[in-house]
Amino acid sequence: MRIVIGEDSALFREGLARLLEDAGHQVVGRAGDAESLLTVVAETEPELAVIDIRMPPDHTDDGARAARKLRASYPRLGIVLLSQHVETRHSVELVSSGGFGYLLKDRVLDVDQFLDALTRVAAGGSALDPEVVGRLLGRPDRLAALTPREKEVLGLMAEGCTNVGIGRRLWLNERTVETHVGSIMAKLGLISNAEDHRRVLAVLAYLGQN
Amino acid sequence: MDLRADSEPLGQVRTYSDVMRWPRWATLGTFLLALAMLAGGGWLLLTHSAGQHTVRNFLALGSVGTAIALLGVVISRKVSLVGLLLAWVGAVTTFLAGREVYYAVAVADPGSLPLDSRVVAFLDESGWWLFIAVALVLLHFPNGRLPSKRWQPVPILLVVLGLAQQALGAFATLPLAMRVLRETAFGLMILLVLSAGISLFVRFRHSTGQERAQLKWLALAGLAAVVYPFVCLTEILVTGETGQVSTAFGIATLIALPASVAVAMLRHDLYDVDRVIADTVTYAIVMVVLLGTYAVAALTLGLFLGRGSATAAAAATAVCALALAPLRARLQRTVDRRLYPPRRAALLAIEELQKRIHTEQAQPEELEKSLQTALRDPTLRVGLLVPGAAGFIDVEGRPVGTTNGVPVMLGGGQIGMLVGDSGPAVLRAVATSAASLVEVSRLRAELAGALREVEASRTRLVQAGDQERRRLERDLHDGAQQRLVSLGMAMRLAQRHLDDGTVDVNGLLDQGVAELATAIAELRQIAHGLRPTSLDDGLHAALTAITQTLPIPVQLHIGPGDLPDDLATTAYFVAAEAVTNAAKYSRATSIAVRVAQSADDVRIRVEDDGCGGATPRPGSGLSGLVDRVAAVGGSLSMNSPAGRGTTIEAVLPCGS
Fold it and tell me: Which pLDDT tens digit goes with each residue over B77-91?
């Protein structure tokens, strides 16, 4: 997979590049600020961009703003935003649009899941940090009808996992996962959809609404 | 420091500008002339025999005239022209007294004095100069200038006509044309003398403040002249002829004019002219009514009991006494309403405001507005003396000037200023009555100022705290956290290649430990920023740790004894910030830090010998220090003259 990294901390940028290359990906461009990120993407036409939210010049949400611009110019480009801290509103909104990921930086250390998330986003799927999902599920009123197991499955669905992925994480077979998913969708009144990422969108839209 | 204790009452500004030299000398000369005439008349009386009546008249008129001239000398020190003219009035009066003596002696002891009929004729006409002098005083009162340019011919014409009168009057027989001329000149002169009275009305209508008060004093003298005929009439009614009462009142009337001028020119701000006028009018009316009642009662009773009956007089007196008490009180109220509105209205407004404050319908700060309405004076301002403010300020903190103002005093000290066009006497009366309200406003303004400052300081402290937290968060996220995540990635990498031997795991671990050490160092630095741990070993140790890293030698003089923790922290930050600032900006060659502790306070003093001229900008480290010091109840001062080094001193209270 051809990947561009936008990250101002050289230490982290090089470490991440090394990790990705070690996993067999190709890091085709590196940028230290939002401006040069746009140029690098235009030059290299990658499949995926991994972007730090806080970057020069403003050190606020320059990365997120650059991501929106990239999404407008390259609709098929997968984008994963990395953040130092959890921020619910914007992240859910971005991820709901598909082909988007929002992860805390520390997730890099769960190398396999991190790489899995990158692949999923590059393929048009989603990845939402478990911390964010946890907060979304933290509102008990709407999910009172779900069993603990169903809540676990719902959380993984929100993170962007496929049925196979969910089964692997929870040590369940695919058929059982499908049953749980059907039950959850029925209880929440959502239309069950075969396509994974649309399902994620439906779940996020449901969890994200007030 | 008590600001009130050593401040002078402000606002007694005198505005006379035309103190010329020559009229003052001329006034003195005129006075000496009057003295000479008094001495001459006295000499004539002593050396020649004259009637007792003549002696009495000369003594009364001569001393009054001389006194008026003396008054002229005193007034000429302030408004020279008015003084000169008044001296003239006095001198003419004395001259007339002397003239009578001369005539009397000449009649009583013929041949003892040289006497020429032409001289007598000439002297006979000199009485007019008294009227001309009075008219000139009225024209130039109170500031020595005419009411306007249009009046300029009047004084000149008056003098010319006076001279003409003098010259033509001396001839007993004149051709018809000359007689017509004389009578015309005389008529014109009388008209001009009357016009001088009119000039006062013109002046009054255009006057404000002090000038108006001065003119009112003059009007007081005019009142006596108005009452005079009534007095004469009553005396005639009662006794059948004008006698001693009328004479006494006449002299009083004569003295009233110079006395009024004197008060107006010299002490008009001491007394409330409106009060005096109102009282005078009240008593004058009471007197007229009483005399009338007495006359009617005496006449009526006299018809039955016989003229001159003691019973009739006693009964008439009783009737008057009965009428007096209710009459005076009622009259006073009526006259006050008519003649004395400003002060009365203002005092009523103060009373009303006090009532409304008690019932919580108003605030003491509304005093200015109430007084403006009551006195119909939109320029009226109430200035408060608030510690920390430059000059006088109003309740909203705007500056108040001191021209046309009177001080507001309380307990022997000045607490404020009443400024306006209502005249000093009215303002003075209002200032006395409103002192307690002014004091309340002043204290409240002071308190509000202190609260505002506390609030601003608290906001700045919160903002400084927020800023500090933001900086910490960034330091943690961008520093230690990044480093730890990178370290984690390196460990993962090592883990993945542990078996295949393609990566130098040993080197990777070394690198990882080095990263860890850096992260630990960074965390330590951040923690130190929160509270310098070196403070545990005392202020001296903590400050030494800083000063050692600076390129400039720093002398530390730190007194013995442990400071309480919060004071030590504040002292540390004050010294650290001041020293760092000096090292950064002052181009100093040496810095001295002194920390001295007494029973009541801790003083931290940082001096350098650098370029000076430092100013604490908002948001700078120094202004942050001000708040930090204020938070423990202390104060921070800075002295930084350009080119002569900077001294920063913080005083932190530590008393129990």
Answer: 877 788 888 888 888
